[in-house]
Amino acid sequence: MIKYLIKRLLLLLPTLLGAAILVFFLLRLVPGDVCEIRLAGTGLYADPAEIALCQKELGLDQHILKQFFDFIWGYATFDLGKSMWTGAPITHEIGLRFHLSLQVAIMATAVAIMIAIPFGIISAVKQNTWIDYFVRAFSIAGIAMPSFWLGILIILGLLIGTQAVFGEPWMPPIEFKPIWEDPVWNISQLIWPAVATGYRYSAVATRMTRSALLEVLREDYVRTARAKGLLEKVIINRHALKNALLPVVTVISIEFAFLMGGLVVTEQVFNLNGLGRLFVESVGAQDFNMTQQLVMLVVLIFVLTNFFVDILYAWLDPRIRYS
Amino acid sequence: MTTASETQVGTNVEDQPNKSSFLDILLIMLRKQPLASFGAAIVLAMIFMALFADVLTTIDPEENNLEFMLEAPGAAFWLGTDQFGRDLLTRIIYGARTALFVGFTCAVVGSTLGLVLGVASAYFGGMFDLIIQRVVDVIMAFPLIILALAVVATLGPGVENVIIAITIPFVPQCARVVRSNALAIREIPYVDAARALGFSHTRIIMRHMVPNVMAPFLIMLTSFLGQAILLEASLSYLGMGVQEPTAAWGLMLQGGAEEYAESAPWVAIWPGVAISLAVFGFNLFGDGVRDTLDPKLRSQ
């Protein structure tokens, strides 16, 4: 088992290296860099000498392979470089925002689980009734509805709702406070983006729960349980659910990695200063250093999540053994 | 997804496994799957809207009309106007053009490239397969929108670049699925026979293998349609996609939707309805195509 884990972990390295190569060269395919934008972005004439000086400062004048090796070497020395836009160390910029995005991601996952599992179960148990149709329509709508639009609708609803009830409109706070400093403030700010992203992510998991449970309910051992007169509640909770939830766990964990993608848009809607927002800003400013490090962070989260899902799977299902 | 009995659909597919044309598949689907037909109806309505945008409305979607800024929905402007006085309904109708153009181009190009790459990867095997699969692994480690944004970061915004940005992540997804199907086909004797007859690699791939992986190819293609429309809307909303003054649904939501939330909520509502409806329709349609072609996947 330990051997297998180490082997799996080592196999992640080629993927990460591949992603690093792809991102690094992709971002440098096309001419034009941050210096030109910074100095000539306002449409004014930029002195070529000044641009050259700026490029020298950022190391852009060096050979591209040298830049690439510096980029990779940075991981060995835990130096991710500096933002080309603000000049601050990238670890600092990411550190500032990591907490917010992680918290929204966790809350969104919790929302997704809280919607998906009960809805999926009830939909499978009441298959082909109006409850089932409602749940399925609800989850299909979740996939079709862009999360940024859901976010806009939530803001709209909050404004109109509070206006009607309290007489004056209320908006979630803009400034971020960690949960241990001001829990009420923190939750009242982050619950909305968590709902907007969580609902979307619950859709796939709801469908998965439903179909997995339906499949398990057709198994022989469920028929045996029914034949010996067990309560339907016991059959579902004790016998069927444990097996049905395996694929659901996988779906939810893998989607956790993709939450980062969802956050890019949701943070924009709710004006949250998180990693997604930082990513969009770095793309807009052609801050390649920042963009590539953020992409690598997402890829790292993604491959690690996949790795943990595999382990989790073996742990949950005794039939699966890695060696 | 539907209540049609499994055996029926199963025999239908077995009777005519690969011979059926896209039209036949459509006909089977319409008969067996009311939900998918509903999706197909939405898709057709969207295509109609996109094709006949200039007939359906005579207003210019891009011309500012400052006399009628943020007019509420009414007789003159059915869905109201935006902050530049442009009729929302007109922009939504023309927005279908942008959305469908991007959606179809990305889905068709992405899945076709994936088809060729996937079949070639399975056919040649060995080193070629290994390299292609590692590249696929790497690309699939990126969430769709992150990779798309990274491409936009390089190329800059604009319709053509958005299409490239959305197509790139689709290629490996389709290639992977097609490859696993093509691997099975490579083992069937007629491929050996074709090779023994001295046919060229290109001919074997294009004439003998590609037609037999049409089912997964079409499943991927239709599932990409909704995804591409949603991605385009997201990118445009972020300001990294289609640029003003072109009418695009995501862009319409960006244009001050939050600022005007209270005074002119229609600006923030209708474009979102259009996106959701389009994606909903394409997804139902895609589910239907998948269920018809691959009964094993039905319940998911």
Describe the model.
The complex is a heterodimer of chains A (323) and B (300). Chain A has 323 residues and is mainly alpha-helical. Chain A has a domain at 92-273: MetI-like (MetI-like fold, Orthogonal Bundle), CATH 1.10.3720.10. Helices cover 77% and strands 0% of the residues of chain A. In chain A, helix 5 (90-125) packs across helix 8, helix 7 crosses helix 8 (183-217) and helix 9 (220-227) crosses helix 10 (232-269). Chain A starts with a helix and ends in a 7-residue tail after the last helix. Chain B is mostly helical and 300 residues long. Chain B has helices spanning 6-15, 22-32, 34-51, 53-56, 88-124, 126-140, 144-155, 159-186, 189-196, 201-209, 214-237, 249-254, 266-293. In chain B, 70% of the residues lie in helices and 0% in strands. Chain B is built from 13 helices and no strands. Residues 1-17 of chain B have low confidence and may be disordered. In chain B, helix 5 crosses helix 11. Chains A and B meet through helix 1, helix 6, helix 7, helix 8 and helix 10 of A and helix 6, helix 7, helix 11 and helix 13 of B.
At the first level of CATH, what is the class of the domain at 92-273 in chain A?
Mainly Alpha
Biggest beta sheet summary of chain A: none
E-strand count of chain A: 0
Helix and strand element order of chain B: HHHHHHHHHHHHH
Query: What profile does the largest beta sheet of chain B have?
Result: none
Residues in helix, % of chain A: over 70%
Largest interface here, residues on each chain? A-B, 55 and 48 residues
Count of helical segments of chain B? 13
Identify the overall geometry of chain B.
elongated
CATH superfamily of the domain at 92-273 in chain A: MetI-like
